[in-house]
Model the fold of this input.
Amino acid sequence: MKKSFVVSVDSRANSDKDAWLRNIDYLASVGFDGVELALRNPENIDLSVLRRELKKSNISLPAIGTGLAYLEDGLSLSAKDLGIRKKAVARVKKHIEFANEFGSQVIIGLIRGKEKSESTSSKRDGIKCLLDSMEELCVFAEKTKAGLLLEPINRYETSYLANVDECRKFIDLLYNKKVNLMFDTFHANIEEENLIDALRKCGRLLKHVHFADSNRLCPGRGHIDFVSVIKSLKKSGYKHFISGEFSFSPDFKSTSSEFSRYLRRLFTNA
Ligand SMILES: [Mn+2]
Done:
């Protein structure tokens, strides 16, 4: 198993434009094998700069997150408004093209959107829209080296596909299958009856894992049993990345190095 950490690319007007590059550098120095980039819009990234940085740090880019396109631009793959939905699909196509350059996978998480009304018919419409969007993205991804990853996300943050069972059923509905599964311990702790059983149910579709503790802090600071999680992953022969995705406490450097040390102990002892 390999270690990765999420780095957000902040492209807002007043932001420190190079902070994310320095963060990649730092991750390499504390023993990470990969970086996962959270990208609002891939067009804001200079590919040659990123390529140079990854090469210099000898670090890979296993996955990219798309959630910022939802949080900052309001784009959603399930939106009833066709205009918004088209923009969301067009944006994720940019993420796929970007991922193709690096052989990465594109995470389909918060970009699935949130239904404001709680009515069942409204949710049914939303899931149909999501299915249409995903079909189009699968066809697009088919011609690339990029993969798509469906992430089960808790009900408070998105309206669709909260657990592994729902994600697996959704993948079965897709005609074009370019989609695999990922697993996030924080969401699973909220939604699954049994976290380890749920992890096991991902089976061969499991291609990426997010680690965060029950309080969304660094593993070890809450009550998720990560020893059992690692044992289960080892037993299944999981060879992909474990990526840290949680709040910084107090800052990026101390949090990412704490996670690197925690994983090293876990890999050795579990
Ligand atoms: Mn996650």
Remarks:
- Residues 120-142 form the longest helix (23 residues).
- Residues 41 and 229 are 33 Å apart (CA to CA).
